[in-house]
Each structure stands twice: as structure tokens, then as C-alpha cells.
Queue: 4 jobs
Job 1
Amino acid sequence: MRISFDEVRNNKIRSWFLAFFFIILIGLLGAVAGLIYGSILFGLILALLFGMIYSIIGFYSGNKMVLAMSGAKPVTKQEYPHLYHAVEGLAVAAGIPTPKAYVIEDSAMNAFATGRDPEHASITVTTGLLKVMNREELEGVLAHEMSHVKNYDIRFMMLTAVLVGIVTLLSDFLLRSFLWGGHGRRNNRSEGGGSTTLIFIAIGLVLAILSPIIGQMIKLAISRKREYMADAGAVALTRYPPGLANALKKISQDPDPLVDKANKATAHLFISTPFRKKKGGMSRLFATHPPIEDRIKRLQEM
């Protein structure tokens, strides 16, 4: 199956619609919380305000937090000259400012990009990747990450992760409210509107339980689509599909793919899942990346 630029454009449109869904979900959670405590409008406004502040903090500080959590160290030209110059050359080819390069001391073969825009972006690779990849394969991996930067995937995935975090926090608050009760709920019961209120509370309870799961699935779906898009972008930059395809083959055969300092919050950023692979339908449903075999097949057909 050939990856076309129409597909890339359509994936971007679908991704923005999914992000809009997050905002609706946050508003619904806030409205239900407001119902419990006596004012739907107050709950809605408070949830959206909290979401806005939380998103701004994540937008400006998220990349630094990711690098710190991952144990990434800045690259010097003297220590890693080929990596340094490869990032510079690909940035020129992509027509964007040169991202800062970082390295993680880890035997696993992996890489990721982060930042809020091309002017404030970074690309990180593991020492395991540098040791195993040849020049073409390393450039394929770097071009994949450069595509994430050029397409503003880094910004979008960071904000998506932040929105999932907001939904999870609001859902947890809502569940605690159901457990401990609320002033507004007691007032509604005393005014004779108990049955209607209980229906809304029941809907809210289901929403509070399902929202984090739905949010996580949406984030993973967006992440999987954008991996295909970045693969296509890497080929456009290098004009050499076998480079990335061969790199992905080596990554898929990594005997120990676990990146020690990776976690669920950062897993979707990596070029391949940084955890040990699990089999089964549920593991595929909650996978951060599309099957690496499918990605290789698409690259071979380009």
C-alpha cells in the first residue's frame, strides 16, 4: 500500500477532529461535576479554565520534562560529529531550524522528537541505535523524527498527551465526588428533582469511568496514524526508502527493546514502542505504534 500525501493530509484533518473531541469531553466532565455541586455552568467554566492553564504549562514546559524524565544529554559536535552533522543536514533539507540533538545512554535502539514547534525542538537517540545503525539507516531514523518536527506532530502529540492527563484528573475528581457526595446533589433531591438528577449522575458516573480509557485510545490512535505520516515524510527527505525500512527491521529484531527510563507518558513519542513487546488483541488495541511489519511493507512499496 502506497502512502500518498492525500493520506497524510486526511490523517491531519482526522487528528484535529479527535483533538476537538477532547475539549468536548473535558466540558462534559466539568458540567457533570458542576451538576453535583449545584452549578453546571460553574463546573463547565472551571473545567475549561483548568484545562487551559494545564495546557499552557504543558505547552511551554513539556519538552524539558520529557528530556529530563528520559535522562537525555545534549550532543556535542566533538563527541558525536556524525549525528550532529546529520541532524544539521536533514534540517536544511526540511527547511526548518536545526533541532537540538540529545543522546540517551541505553542499549535499546530507539529515538524520539519533542518540543512545541520547529524553533524549540529536539531529537533524541539512544547510544544503542548509534552503535548498530549504518549511515543510511541512521539518517532514515533521524529523517522520521525530523518529519515529526516539520509537521508539528511534536506540538500536537504533546498537547494530546496533556489533554488526556486533564481528562484523567477530572474523571478522578468526578469519581471522588460521587463517593463523597456534593452539596448540589443533596439540594436537588430535597427540591423533588431527584429522579432526573440521578439519571444525570448515572450518566456522569459512566462518563467518569470511560473517559480516561476513551482518551487514551484516542491518543494512541493519533500516535499510530502519525507514525505512518512521519515514515512518508522521512522518505521525502532522504529519497531512500530502504534506509528507514532497514532501520526498522533492525529495531524490530532488538533482543532488548526496553528503554529503561521510558514510561507510559512518553512511549508514544518514540519511533518504536520502548517496552517489551506483548502479544494479543488487547495489547494491539492499546499499542502506541502501528505494527512495525506494516510500516516496513509500506516503505518497501514506495
Job 2
Amino acid sequence: MWGETMNKDLLNQIQNLYQTFSKGQKHIAKFIIDHYDKAAFMTASKLGSIVGVSESTVVRFASELGFEGYPQLQKSLQELIRNKLTSVQRIEVSTDRLGDGDIFEKVLNSDIEKIKKTVTELSRDDFNGAVSAIVGAKNIYVLGVRSSAALASFLGLYFNYIFDHVILVNTTSGSEVFEQIMRINENDVIVGISFPRYSTRTVKAMKFASDRGATVVSITDSKMSPLYRYSSYNLIAKSDMASFVDSLVAPLSLINALIVAVGIKCQAQVYNTFAQLERIWDEYEVYDKNDEENRGDEDKE
């Protein structure tokens, strides 16, 4: 079996073994070396069809490289290239994957599959450990950049309902990030959120927090994520790309679960907070009243 460090050398390994492959396997090897960004998202049948070999030849090729089967080879290629794809390459790859037909159904089914994988693969020990650490923290920092900023904002919003010591880190510039977390220490927790393409600012902030003894909780997509090495608790949510956009459905579901689990641990505090908020919202008419109630008042007039 190939380890995580060997994923990085996969293309070199294929090149080194090239002369030992059969004629058909050489066709596969050449295609992967030249077009690994596309091969990573092809089925064995599709790859075989493109290079002119049978599906069984593709499966045997994976075995020659030491994988249990083609899905493991495919996964290694995906982990290798996902952080390296440019937006233009993402569009090209996703166009090949989605093809024609019902795009709506294909994208939603892909998201459903990512949630299912997240449910089965997430470490419950890490999840429960993260919940306990957050509940017991003196300060809670939340950080997410670019597309992950929306996830961080959502998490920060609800954590602010529960705690009075939440800092949603402003990520406008790299220097501002470090200015905001400069006092982080062993009594604090930082939740860092990043998915391919990984944010350098988030990775550096996680390292900074880890060096200062803070508990680091990462919400990311795999053990190959650069956040993984600095984290006390790793919450892995399966992500994918839908054309040039990031599919963050599974990460958001994970964050929902995290908020609910923390809320249950702080149930009395949450109840008191929302009881007070309801009075404030009502007094300052934050939300519109029900249309039927308004119509009823008009009828009385």
C-alpha cells in the first residue's frame, strides 16, 4: 500500500517503472503523466476507453503500482493534484466529469455522496475532543479565508450566541491575521478552516497558534491537508470541486453538528441567551411580524 508521503512521488514512480510495463500499461502511464489532472477523476472504464485498453488492464496497472485496486490509485492522484489545480483546470476537469445531461442532479448527488463519506470517516474521538476543548476554552478564535470565510462567519455567528469570548479573525491581510491572534496561548482554542486550494495565511496562523500552545482544531478535507500537522483535533469533511466553485456542503454539515454539540454542552447558557435575544428582537422589531397577524390587525380597524 502507498503511504501519504508516497503520493507525492507517484508520478516519478510511474516514470521509473515505465519500461517494465506492458504495451497497454505504457499507454496508461503516458496518459497519467501527461494528463494526471484529468485522469484523477476518470473511472477505470473511461480511462481505458481513452487510451485504447480494457478496463481490466487499467485495474492491473493499479496493482502493478502496489494499490489494492483502481479506486486507491485514483484517490492518490486526486489527493496529489487537488491543491494544484488552477481555476481554468478545474473548469476543464469538471466539464469532463459532468458532461451533458442533468447538471443539477449530478452536482446534488455528488454533494450527498460527500456527506455520506464524511459521516463514515470522521473521527468521533476528534469531534468529541474538539467540542470539549471549545467549551473549556478561555478564548475561541475562528479563521477561514476566501471560500472558507463564509464557513468561518457562520460558525462565528453561532458561537457568539453561546460564548462571550469568540474572535472571528479578520483576514483582509496576512499581517492583520497575526495581529489579531498574537495573544493566543495554551488556554485558548483556534478553529482553522481550509480546503483546496489551501490558504497559506490559514496554515501559517495554525502553526503560530500551535507553537504558542493553543489547542488547534482544523476543519479540512484530508490527512494530506497542510493544516493536519498542526492540529490537536482534525475534523475531516469531504470536499470537492464543482467547476470553478468549491463544494462545501459536507463541511457546512460538519459545522452544524459542531455547533449543535457545543450548544448541548452549554444548554442553560444558550437558553438564557436566546430568551434575551427574543426580547430584544421583539422590542426593536428585528423580524417582520406574520402576514396573517398583520392582516388580522387591519381587519379589526
Job 3
Amino acid sequence: MIKPVQVLGQPAMWLRAPDGAEVTVLLHGGQLVSWIPAGDQERLYLSPLAAAGGTPAVRGGIPVIFPQFAQRGPLPRHGFARDRTWQWVEGADRGGVMIGVLRLTDDEATRALWPHRFEAELSFSFCGLQLDVELAVTNTGELGKDATFEFTAALHTYLLIDNLRQAKLAGLYGVRYLDNLTGLTQPQELDPLGFVGEIDRIYLDTHAIHKGPLGLSTAMGRMTIQTEGFDDAVVWNPGPVKAAALADLPDDDWQRFLCVEAAHIGTPVTLAPGQEWVARQGFEA
């Protein structure tokens, strides 16, 4: 079943698989804001103070970060994809698996910020206890006329948890990370990783050491997180002090989510006209 709905006062699409699994995606930002696996509970965090349709971006779900991660470049923080309206392309039931496709293409407004022709496509599929989210970017410029471009990207996934202090994330042992709180780069020495408050780390080239999925354990159960095409991973939570300074986040809600983001940051993606890059992040509850 697929039907248009309103979320946060903005157009969205709601999809339900034959087995009862559900996903809701905002057209603003092409942003998944809800995933309820079959027979399970909500697995994505969405702030009760979130607002859509402008800036800042919607706090929660899976914001699409493109073509710049954070402030690592001249563009607005996290680029512009999460702040623009995406086109709903397709939704379908394929043998019990629900799929959805959204698309964002360049226009005068994007080219004023980033002078390149592109097409970004967000595809998701789900059924049972699984969700896969794929981001594809194509340089739609003409050979000999338009430029090769570079970009960084991420799926800024807010995973709903019951208590951050009791959460454990396994699978990053030995991976080098940049700690944005200290500016230092070092290998991960604990596995699983526990949390006591603010964390802001970019784990670089995660597949160089570990080929398997990450495992997130909470009182809500265990979730596996698998990526393909994304070289890096980001683990983020604002902690109590920064959460209190965010107008779109209740003061205590930093304890209710952990961002485990599929990312491509350390080495930007380079695309010549006509080339495409594809990467995905998959979850199993």
C-alpha cells in the first residue's frame, strides 16, 4: 500500500509492505522519517520539536548529506540536498518487497551554490525486519563541455534507542577515527564502543579492516548495519550540553538516539561527465 500523507505539515509518502513493515519519507530533503519493521516498533528517531520545509533541516530520520559533509568546504553546512524538495519517482510492491525512489536534479538555485549538473537518486526497499537505502549520484554534464566534480556525502541516520548510556556499537575495533571534539586521529581501541555523552567521530576507511556489519545493541534489541560504497562512518550524538542549545531537540532527548552514518568523507568522490557513483546502507532489526 502506498499513499500520500502530510508529515510536519509537508508532503510525504507512506508505504506499507504486505507483512506490515512501514516507511514514511518526506519529499522535503528526500528524507526517511519513519521505519517500523514488521511486527516491531519504530526504529528511527524523529524529534518531537522537528520542523520541515525550511532551515534548519528536519531533526531525525535519515537526512541526505550532499554534496558537502559538515563544513568541510565552501557550501552551507551539509550541502543543500536535505533542504530541497525531491521528486517522487516511483513506489511499488515487488514480490512483497516495497520500493520507493526519489530524485533531485540541479537547477538555477543549486548551480548558484555549486556550478555542476547532477542527478541524485535516493532509493529504498524494505520488508520484514530489513531496510536498505541507496544513494546514487550522476554527473549529467556533457563530455568536453562540463567539468568533472568532487563531492562528499552521507546518510545521517538517527537510530532510535532507549538509553544512550546503555547502548553498545560493535565492529569498529582498530579503525582510525578523527575525533572532532579533540582534533586528534587515532585507532578505535575498545569494542564494543560505549557512550557517556557527546561523541563526534569520523571513522575512516572502515572496510579496510572489517568487512562485516556493525552491531548496535540496546534494550530495544540488536540491529546490524551494513554499508557498500561508503568508505567511512560517522558516529554522533550531541550530549546534554549541546542538546540543550538545539531549539529543535528536547533537552533530554540526546539519550534517545545515536547517529550511525554511512559516509564518504575522507576521500571525496570524483565524477566525470556521464559517470555515476552508487552506495548503500542496510539495516536489519
Job 4
Amino acid sequence: MPQQKIGQAGLWMAGWLSATLAMTIAGRELAHSVSVFEMMMFRSLIATLILTPIIFLNGGLTGRLSQLRLHAARNVLHYAGQYAWFSALLLIPLVEVIAIEFTMPLWIAILASAFLAERMYGAKIAALVIGFGGVLMIAKPGMTFNPGHVVALTSALLFACTVTMTKYITRRDTALTVIFLMFSMQIVIGAIPAYLTWVWPPVESYKWIAIVALTGTGSHYCLSRAISLADATLVMPMDFLRLPLTALAGYLIYAEGIDGWSILGALLILAANTINLMKARTT
């Protein structure tokens, strides 16, 4: 077993945290001046331009198109998930979007059990119950209703579908292939909706376009590098820092508060993920 480089992995995870936080803020700012479809088109175009020379320096497209139908299906779902995620940023506080996003591993556990024949044991079931209890505390059904919570939860479910498909796809394709085909295919998927909602962004929005595109690409690379240097069960708990960091950014930039129910719900979701991670260490 190759030696783990935990210190280097930690630095790459710091890059992931910085990039995703910057993309969250830039996505909200940009969505005030252009449609979400247009924002995603800019992101895909710039990312494809960045990744194309890297692909050709690593052997070009030869052997990268053998699972094209699977990639296409994955990217339709991912595109819908991205649309829901960016839309949720405008509907509910940032920290609530991220807290609900953390239900993704719980959805993955259900999907992996259904489609990848992974076993659902007692700890996973307990994590699911605790995690979804946390979602109910954040959404507070019957007390308040905000469609943003439904949109954010839909995003988490769609992302879970794409991660489950990625587990299967990466048995034959590399992470670089997955990321390149994701952005290049989403140019095609998003062409018509972007055209129908297109407006030329004001000059001051171009910095947010650049940030969304660069951080959206860089975050994927940082995460893949971190996981390549150390076990995912050691690396992924660092992602939990995204929740307090996003809460702090929401408070400082947008004066967003968070109530006690939402704090308790977020803690329950993190506890559910911790149960999954601790169980993964011991299996």
C-alpha cells in the first residue's frame, strides 16, 4: 500500500475549501446579473478551454470516449443538479444550502445499495435517519416553507446520482476524462437554455464569471489530488469546515443570521456523515 501523504492532502483540501467558498459567493453575486443557465455556460466554456490542452498533453481523446452514453447521462443529471444548486443560493441563506448539500453522502448510501449492491447495515441506516432529521430541522416543514429548501435538497439528490454513476464510470475512465467530458458536454446540454436567457453581463460581472469558472475547475482538481494522496476517510472530514466557513461568510458579507433549529439540523447532518466516515474506517 503506498504511503499516505496526509500533510500534502491537507493542503489540497484547503485549496478545495477556498475554491468552493469563493464559487458559492461568486455564484450568488453573478446570479443577480445573468441567468443561471448563462452562468453555467460561461463556466463550462472557460473550463473546457483550460482543460483541452491538458487532455491533449495526456494522450488526447484516444480511449476516452468508450463510455460516452454513461457520461452523457451523468452530465444531464449533473447539469440539473448544478442549476438547482446555483438557484438555491438566491433563495435561502448560504449556510442552509451547504448544510442540505451535506445530505449527499446519505443519498449516495441509498443509491449505492440499490444499484451497486453495497450493503445497508445498521450504522448506515442510523446515519440516514439522523441526517434526514437534520434536514427537517433546517426546512422546518409546517412552521415555515421556503421552496429554496426543496431546490437545495433536489440538488443534493442529483449530485448523489452523479457521484454514484462516477463510481462506476471511473472503473475504466480517469478523473481527468470525467471532468473534461463534464464541462464539454454541458456546453452542448446548456446551449439552448443559455441562448434563450442570454443577456450580455455588465462589465463589473466579469470578475465573478472568472471566479466561478476558475474555482469550479480548480475545486475538482484539488479534491481529486487530495484523495489521491490519502484515504478519503482521512481527507473528507475536512470538508465539514465548509459549513462554519460558509456561515461566517454569509454573516460578514450578507448579514445572514442562522436560527437555533438550523444550527441543530446542520449538526445532525454532520453527525450522520461522521457515523458514515467512522464506519468506513473500520470496514
